Amino acid sequence: MSTLAVPIELLTVAEMARADAAAIAGGVPGIVLMEHAGRAVARAIRRRFRPRPTVVLCGPGNNGGDGFVVARRLHEAGWPVRVALLGERARLAGAAALAASRWSGPVGTLTPAAVARAHLVVDAVFGAGLARPVEGVVAETFAACRAPVVAVDLPSGVAGDTGAVLGTAPQAALTVTFFRLKPAHLLRPGRDLCGEVVCAEIGIPARVLEGIAPRLFRNDPALWRAALRRPGPGDHKYSRGSLTIVAGEAMTGAARLAARAARRAGAGLVTIACPDAASAAACRAGDPGVIVVEAPVTELLGDLRRQVWLVGPGGGMRAPATAAAILAAGRTLVADADALRGASEAIAGAALVTPHEGEFARLFGPPAGRLGAARAAAARLFGAVLLKGSDTIIAAPDGRAAITADAPAWLATAGTGDVLAGIAAALIAQGMPPWEAGCAAAWAHAAAARGAGAYMIAEDLADHLPRVLAAV
Length: 472
Description:
Layout: H1 13-25, H2 30-48, E1 54-58, H3 62-76, E2 81-85, H4 94-101, E3 107-109, E4 120-124, H5 136-144, E5 149-152, E6 174-178, H6 190-194, E7 196-200, H7 209-212, E8 216-218, H8 221-224, E9 242-246, H9 252-264, E10 269-274, H10 277-284, E11 291-294, H11 297-300, E12 308-311, H12 319-328, E13 332-335, E14 352-353, H13 357-364, H14 370-381, E15 384-387, E16 392-395, E17 401-404, H15 416-429, H16 434-452, H17 458-461, H18 465-470
Parallel strand pairs: 1-2, 1-4, 2-3, 4-5, 5-6, 6-7, 8-17, 9-10, 9-12, 10-11, 12-13, 13-14, 14-15
Antiparallel strand pairs: 15-16, 16-17
Helix pairs in contact: 2-3, 2-4, 3-4, 9-15, 15-16
């Protein structure tokens, strides 16, 4: 999916229904929206495929109405098109009935036989609003598809708000949606079934968003660019942000990865606090610009310049207690990895927590849906939550959330989470609000990985950060 021209707001199924209703109430007839939607799908198909025998599978609602328009538009362009309908044509209502009346060709029954000889299948059966599993003849028909599938709004069977598959859903080569993306276009597994995604304008005025006030977004610099601190002529190392990273006894490399990333992300002064001489010696063998101290955290908390702390990367068994002590001292905490091994109450009030799915499940229970679970956790902790994964979610306690859906698969290698935590902590140390910092860190992390290439290792990421952030 190209995101260059895709708006950043994401709409739930209910919010999209409100947008449609607001447009109609504002004077745009429903059939006009349907005609524009069907024309957009037909246009996207014609740009990607040569004319071929096509069957349009239409459902009993507005998604099916869109399908009738698609069929008519392709037929007018000289394509051989058939329509197969789920249910009875006489039971169509509203704009869908009007769109069907404008189709002059035959209407068959939606069965597996309908797709047997098709070279292209258009899925206009259910769309985003489905609330029950796909089964019976619809599931059998999708199973019989051997041709490329183009989905109208979403592949039927994908839940629009969560990306979950309800029963079954076809694998689409192309999905055309309207006005704004839905969460399922970015959340897995729905995202994987969409293929290429096109978001088309169909005549819904952008001003309808004012009444909806979306709280969910595609992670993009437009969300947080204004909060990103740029170096100024009056800066010194403390004004650019002082960050203290707490290392453990053994895995000191994790703290070093986080520290290098933090410095490359703009922090003016980064300190690694070590519990003993051996860990301090290991950290001093790293980058010379990182300050390494061997001292108890309780002693370092006496320095009021140390306002922002990162605990977790290689933090060891003491990390949960250390995180609690930092919070008790009224300091700003970013909690990652080992700091998340205690009870969730112990990190309540942290500015940002960065669990992967296993750590999240240990803290809050297995998430039934990643988006809802991340939002609930942020409200419970009174802090931002960055739930890592191939569809990373950053949630704020006030209900805002963003989805980072373009992180490359090669980030799945040891140490990259430590780098991500270091970036986020550095941005917070520079004064960025935690949710915005989490969004910016996830975005920059993904962009740096794309720059580093498919065979990168965690150590490669930090050196790409200056270019990535400078270009925002």
